[in-house]
Amino acid sequence: MANTDSNAFQAADFVSKAAHEQSQSLLFSVLPGEIRNQIWSYALADYQDETQVYDDATCYKRPEYLAPRKTDTVLLRTCKRIYQEAWFLPWTHAEQIFYLTGTDRRPLRTTTVRDMQRTLLTISKTQTMPIIQHVRVFAQLYLLENGTKLQDILNLSFFYPKSITITIRHTDWWFWESDNNLHFDATWVDFCRFPNSLTELRVAFESLERKKDQIDDVVNQAIRGWTFRCKDDTELSAKDCKPEIMKWSGNATWGGRRWVRDETGPNKLDYYVSTAIWRPVSSTSDNENGTPRTYVTEGRRFPNLDATGYAQLDDQIPWVPTSVMRNANMAPDAPTRDVRRLLEESSDEEGEERFRESDDDSEQDDIASEDEDL
């Protein structure tokens, strides 16, 4: 979404100018606007740019996020009348993605709140306020749980999303490195107020396949115990929600470490994702003025989510520095047992020192990334 504010500014200026009616074209003289809009939507759909595929050794490369997305806008350059009808579709139909994460857990180029606000303000000058179809937020818990960073997004002016998905990845949970049981503080549930345009709020809970039972546990707790609110106090409920389940496999290497503890194959991790959906609810009776009566609960405090009593893995070698593997001329996808043996056999002082240095470097990188201003 680079330079979206600049693009929107140019669009706002161009849309306001007169255009030829194009009555000689069957597109405009025969087809109704609804059909034309479907054609424009198909032609302007975004896709993954396979020339810029993300590195496998990252925590943000995943299904449907293998590379940055782009849109071929050649259609908009064929005719001013088409441009005036469809100029905003590449923006509204593309998924708008935010990362509430450290810098090492997101792609190099991402949309910031400031970028998005500039674009929205510019679009508002055209007197066209298209609804955004979908917003995705990838969030580490330390930046999500108190709600302030997410509310910065939700408070954007002229921000009208239909659907928001908040994704908690395996590496976003507290102390996943130590294989802690899953914990999710609920402060943000009561703190955040969502746009009134919202028709669904989706929260995707992800962890390793072997922690499937913990994910199912916390998702069921969230469905039963969490209710979200829009700014007009309409409540969003997940009552009777049947979670959507997805499974996928990815690389076991990230942040200069290969996580052999969790591997299901050489350099392979299996993931389990359960997505719960909250939708607006209203009572069957209306207020006296005819508007739907909404549920409002005052002074509430929602329960934290805790998966308790599950066994933790006590592995003496949870991960192996990739630098140690490179120094031993070991292939990135070497069998797990060989990678483990590499450290087990490195009992000499040089090997131990090399391991400690790699560990210290990784920890410093983690601290530096968390201190970055989002």
TrEMBL record:
Residues 335-344 have a biased composition (Basic and acidic residues). Residues 345-374 have a biased composition (Acidic residues). Residues 328-374 are annotated as: Disordered. It comes from Aureobasidium subglaciale (strain EXF-2481). It comes from the Eukaryota. The lineage of its organism: Eukaryota, Fungi, Dikarya, Ascomycota, Pezizomycotina. This is Uncharacterized protein.
